[in-house]
Structures are given as C-alpha cells and as structure tokens.
Amino acid sequence: MNFTLTTQIKATPKQIYKSWLSTQRHSKMTGSPAYVSDKIGDTFKTRKGYITGSNIELEPYTRIVQSWRSSNFEDNESDSQIEILLSEDGEETTLTLNHTNVPEFGEDYKEDWNKHYFEPMKRYFEALNKA
C-alpha cells in the first residue's frame, strides 16, 4: 500500500528540514522522545522506539528520504519508505509525505501522521515563530 499526505505549516523549509533531522528539535516538534541524525546511512528512533529507520537520501531544505518501520511490522515484512518534500509557499511550507511499501494494516498510519506529526508540528512552529 502507498499513500500521499499534504499539509501546510507556518515555517520555512529550512526550519522543518533542520528540525526533522535534529534529535532535540524533532523531540520538541513532535512532543515525543526521538534520536535522529542528519547524515545519510544513520539510523533513527522516534516515538520511544515505536518507529525506526535510516536516512537514505537528504537534499537540504527540500527532500528527506528514509526507510521506516513501526514495531507493528512483522519480522518478515520489509521496511516501508517515506519521502518528505518541502516547498515554500509564501509564509508557509507545503509538506508532502509519500509513504510507500506500507503493510496492508497500515491504513491507520494516515491518521497517525496527522495526530503525531503534522498537528504537533503546526503548534510547535507557530509557537516558535511567535517568540
């Protein structure tokens, strides 16, 4: 299964990109502990280890490609992949998430992205950019 989600966030592509790939900022923007890196090949853990993966491709401020799996994946299931595209749109950034090779049970991940990423990110950047 594959799906694409798009959202608008009041932040620059650079702010989102750097926050996604920073342990401290990723944790703050999602409200959940994370360990991430800004180097290709490095692994990451988010949401207390519920999600793991590694950085596949990094194009500063425009594109992040990561392998991705949750602890719900069976051992014999291959990783899925996320591609995050960032494009400036006035005072906002359009974030497009392409999630591919998702197991059939993964329909719930659509809502999880909104609940655990997009909504907390909107609140985080709104507060950050008011300061």
From TrEMBL:
It holds the Pfam family AHSA1. SUPFAM superfamilies: Bet v1-like. Residues 10-126 form the Activator of Hsp90 ATPase homologue 1/2-like C-terminal domain. Belongs to the AHA1 family. This is SRPBCC domain-containing protein. It comes from Winogradskyella immobilis.
